[in-house]
Design goal:
Blueprint lengths: L1 H13 L4 E3 L1 E2 L7 E3 L16 H10 L6 E2 L5 E2 L3 H9 L7 H20 L4 H23 L3 E3 L10 E4 L15 E2 L15 E2 L14 H12 L3 E5 L7 E4 L4 E3 L3 E5 L3 E7 L7 H23 L5 E7 L9 H8 E2 L3
Parallel strand pairs: 2-11, 8-9, 14-15
Antiparallel strand pairs: 1-7, 3-6, 4-5, 10-13, 11-12, 13-14, 15-16
Helix pairs in contact: 3-4, 3-5, 4-5
């Protein structure tokens, strides 16, 4: 009887990572934006191009708001609005909050063009170079970005909770795949269920992307990794965006010395406000979890944010942890 009990305990321990029970909530609004400044237009010197090229360019744009009326006549929005339509696609820009500054900066750019071009040639330049003009303005905006430190309520931290189970569904008749199997096209990966893991806390997992699937392979093959899991939706209670959204980490990984919350993201998405707010929430969780585990002879928690193009077959998980670990504040 005792041997059977010990076997059950050992099996449970092998498939458990001690995750403290923490409900992390924000205190107040997150304030960020761009401070007011004047655009440096000294290097702004675009020249007009032929009307024929302009017309061809407009026809080739899938999302162009400009229209062609008759032969050689172009009907369009105001130059400032054309530039702003490109600017609002940039990371960190909230149009509702930054509208006054955007109109000011776009107006200063247009005013510089008008200082050496006619009205018609100014419109010509904006139509063909609106993306370059938006990039020119956004580059100067970035040093003026501010973000007040995120504030969180001090949570009540409780001993570790059980590992929550996933509720998976898969397409009828589709076999469960081994995690090392190549799936083509890669867009089909989110619909598959994978197994064959030796270090995971669950027998089956789904992945949102090829990057996540490849990272799981790195974890399985890294000797520094003891165990890992893909958290179920109910595993963590980390709130962000004025407590209206919950953050769910991609992975939790335990090594001999540390426990990591790991997120893999497209490199271009990392600077965005959404990813940065989630990162701050994850860092706060790791800080409170580490304070708790330090008092109970446990391992410190660390947060790792890995760009998708860094997850390569010849990389080790340990190398990525060391390179992309974020500082707990």
């Amino acid at each position: 009887m005792m041997a059977a009990y010990d076997e059950v305990v050992e099996e449970f321990t092998l498939h458990t990572i001690e995750i403290p029970r923490i409900t992390l909530m924000q205190a107040g609004d997150v304030k960020s934006g761009f401070r007011d400044f004047d655009l440096d237009t000294s290097n702004l010197n675009y020249q007009p191009i032929s009307e024929e090229i302009i017309i061809r360019y407009l026809r080739e744009q899938d999302n162009a708001v400009d229209t062609i009326v008759g032969h050689g006549r172009i009907k369009t929005d105001k130059p400032e609005k054309l530039i702003i339509n490109e600017l609002i696609n940039a990371p960190k820009i909230d149009y509702d909050q930054e509208a006054d500054l955007l109109f000011k900066l776009a107006g200063q750019a247009v005013q510089k063009l008008k200082s050496y071009l006619s009205e018609e040639d100014t419109l010509n330049v904006v139509l063909y170079h609106k993306r370059d003009l938006a990039k020119f303005i956004y580059t100067q905006m970035q040093p003026h970005f501010y973000s007040d430190p995120l504030k969180y309520l001090k949570p009540n931290v409780l001993p570790f909770t059980r590992i929550e189970e996933h509720n998976f569904s898969k397409y009828s008749g589709d076999a469960i795949r081994h995690y090392s199997e190549t799936i083509t096209p890669t867009s089909a990966i989110p619909s598959k269920v994978f197994s064959g893991f030796n270090k995971s806390c669950h027998p089956y997992y789904k992945f949102h992307s090829k990057t996540e699937k490849d990272f799981a392979s790195l974890l399985e093959n890294d000797p520094h990794v003891l165990k890992w899991l893909r958290p179920a939706a109910r595993q963590f209670h980390i709130y962000w965006h004025h407590n209206s959204k919950e953050y769910h980490p991609d992975f939790v990984v335990e090594t001999e010395s540390d426990i990591y919350l790991v997120e893999t993201k497209k490199e271009m998405d990392i600077p965005t406000r959404e990813v940065q707010e989630k990162s701050q929430a994850a860092l706060q969780y790791c800080r409170h979890a580490s304070e708790f585990t330090e008092q109970h002879e446990g391992k410190p928690w660390r947060y790792v944010l890995i760009p998708h193009n860094a997850v390569l077959a010849n990389m080790s998980a340990e190398f990525l942890f060391q390179k992309y670990v974020q500082k707990v504040v």
